[in-house]
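Marked as duplicate of an earlier ticket. Keeping the data here for the record.
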Amino acid sequence: MLKKTTLDTGLRLVTEFIPHARTAAFGVWVDVGSRDETEIDNGTSHFLEHMFFKGTAQKNARQISMDLDRFGGMSNAFTAKDTTCLYATVPADKLTDLSGLLADMFTGSVFDQDEVTREAQVILQEIAMVEDIPEEQAHEKFEQEFWGDHALAQTVLGNADVIAGMTSEKLFNHMQTLYHPENVVISCAGQVDHEQFCGMMEPLFAGFKRSTSPFQRTQPPAESFLRKSVVHRELEQVHLLLGAKGINITSDKRFALVLMNTLLGGNMSSRLFQEVREKRGLAYSISTFVESYLDCGYVGVSAGVSPETVNETLDIIAGQVQSISSADNISEEEFQHTLDHAQASIFLAGENLEARMARNARNEFCFGRDIPLDEVAKAVSLVTRDEVAALAKELFDPPMGGLIMGDVQPGDVDWV
């Protein structure tokens, strides 16, 4: 059962008690990411995530690492376009210790300049690592093309010059400006008592005060950017990334989007996987992807093929996108198969404590309430073939833009 308490500061505490669990997943979620940065501070949110592990007034970096290992669980952190999260899963009897440590890391990090300087080198290596992975590089360039001049086009890892020039003062200012109790959710799922949890959290976050200048997010792009770009690289594969404007995460059409994505390229029996890989052997991997935010989103197709088969693959993708835009081309059997897979995925995700903890935090950010899995499954079951086809037609007309990166020239590509 999920319970929620909002402290006087605006900090929200969300717990889900799972009777059979012997562990607890705990996360500090911040509704801030790289889309909330500018060119002159791009990468600061991600840098902050790293620095939470690098020392507080109470513990140095080694002591933090030793404690996290001593708890016997799993700990990590991540930064996304719109979110930063610090989380861990531990045996239930270690939850009190973990809560104290993560609260100290989040509210008491000192951002020692020597540590900042060292960590900058680590992050620069992380950036270099992405540059050495063609798939990652292609995806970054695709987002830059798709979002244009909007902040969503910025990389999460950050601009190398910004990272190299990072200071303790810049990190403190970024956190003070953007990290407010009102846009933070503490989520815990597993063997947790809500009242006891709230009793622990309130004093731990007592110094995290409500801001006098509420956080304001940048507005979404006024239009989608359907550019078509070819980037020449001497690679063995050509990486195709095609995209179209999507829907926001709270849209009434989100359940139809789940089924459309699954039907087109979301699993091994999907249209694109069968047509491109199984029937023609053109790609090892081809799939669709969805990214949705509170105010915008996109849908897309990703594949890796040989230079000689780029145009054939583009034709197949265009044909399948057009096909699912008519309900007459979606059989009842195929639709039921897609529905069964989607509903199974919903409940399988519910078996993972970290996934439940994350889902509860995201629901609080996006909807301000708990959305039971049964409610989601029922909503998916009510979607019709007509609704899926209508959404496909809406999203894919006009045709997708995209980025093609590999050993091809612009004149080699016949865009559909």
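See parent ticket for discussion. The chain has a mean pLDDT of 94.
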